Amino acid sequence: MWLLEPIPAVGEASKRFVEKDLDVSVAGRSFMITGANSGIGKAAAMAIAKKGGTVHMVCRNKDKAEEARADIVKESGNKEVYVHILDLSETRKVWEFAEAFKKKYKALNVLINNAGSIMSQRDVNAEGLEKSFAVNVLGIYILTKSLVPLLEKSPDPRVISVTSGGMFVQKLRIGNLQSERGRYDGTMVYAQHKRQQVVMTEQFAKTHTNIHFSVMHPGWVDTPAVANAMPDFHRSMKESLRSPDQGADTVVWLAISEVAITNPSGRFYQDRRVVSTHLPLAWTHSSPLEEQKFMSLLEELAKKFHRTYS
Fold first, then answer.
1. N or C: which end of the chain has fewer CB within 10 A?
2. Which domain of life does the protein's organism represent (predicted)?
3. 105 catalytic, yes or no?
4. Contact at 8 Å (CB) between 25 and 78?
5. What pLDDT, on a 0 to 100 scale, did the predictor assign at position 2?
6. pTM (2 decimals)?
């Protein structure tokens, strides 16, 4: 079962972590984190706020977001924490949000694409797109693409996406992007989206060479998303799941450490280390042509829902 792909115990992995990698101040740098009101997103926001960074929390639920912000401000003593309400499944609103953000703010140093969605049954948004695809793939594509100009004019720009081990058993699929054909299996659809995020990161890194792109697997983490989407798995594995802080460690390391950007852009990480995006002898490799076609399909969809903003 792909849910149980081997992940080193966090204690073992952390023995080789270099503490001074995170011994930095990021005062004056700004960070946008999607899905920042709980789990890995909130843990990353807290860690960055404690280092003095300006944090933009992009969340769907206003009450939960404000509650999380209050926790972060109280514990970190940093008031430069801002809440932005956005449902990434509403495709046109992702464009609107990103365009408005660029007008209001002069800099964005780091974008952390953390929000994700696993659906138990197929559902579509107002634009007719399958909802988890809208959140996990097209939302990330539009948000990243729209914010590239702001990132490029900010010092040391970085984009980090949070993926999942499910992608190890998925080959990039460029047909049936909306999961219309066949039986809908939300967990496998999610795993396919995570493979798509890896490919997207690799392709963005080739196109936007002034920005350091990375994608990471946090291990299996005890978060509300895992508990809600996979209750049986969560119940049986609860004792061996990582904490949100442990899951967020590599996100924070990629976002703030100087050593992280000495690695080439577009790489996949686990426990602060570059790892392969495929298991040994895997059938999951795709061709450059398939990957370019996938990006073209995303661009076509993105343009379809983009109004011109004056």
1. C
2. Eukaryota
3. no
4. no
5. 44
6. 0.91
